[in-house]
């Protein structure tokens, strides 16, 4: 991933992770694996875990400890109502920005 992609991703990764959790509950490694499958090959697991700690502290997700076959219980995250509101706002902002960027790309029409 280039530097420009890394910088843009920093500003959107929280919304991306919340969008994943809007579809289904998941634990950190599952989220990281899905992101990598989608082409975000350079996403570090630590980046995702740090983000999950932040969204948990903000009260945007619910966390359930689920027994693991190997090692300690896994923390499974799911989007809660407050997180859904935050995600809705993210999508609204994304739509606004993407429309303006597309206008600029088309020559300001």
From TrEMBL:
Residues 17-88 form the Transcription regulator PadR N-terminal domain. It holds the Pfam family PadR. InterPro entries: Metal_resp_DNA-bind_regulator (IPR052509), Tscrpt_reg_PadR_N (IPR005149), WH-like_DNA-bd_sf (IPR036388), WH_DNA-bd_sf (IPR036390). PANTHER family: PADR-FAMILY TRANSCRIPTIONAL REGULATOR, TRANSCRIPTIONAL REGULATOR RV3488. This is PadR family transcriptional regulator. It comes from Nocardia albiluteola.
């Amino acid at each position: 991933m280039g530097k420009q992609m890394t910088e843009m991703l920093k500003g959107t990764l929280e919304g991306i992770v919340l969008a994943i959790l809007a579809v289904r509950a998941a634990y950190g490694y599952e989220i990281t694996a899905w992101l990598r499958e989608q082409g975000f090959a350079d996403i570090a697991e630590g980046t995702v875990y740090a983000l999950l700690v932040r969204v948990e502290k903000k009260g945007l997700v619910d966390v359930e400890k689920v027994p693991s076959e190997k090692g300690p219980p896994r923390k499974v995250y799911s989007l809660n109502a407050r997180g859904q509101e935050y995600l809705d706002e993210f999508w609204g902002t994304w739509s606004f920005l993407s429309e303006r960027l597309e206008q600029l790309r088309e020559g300001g029409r």
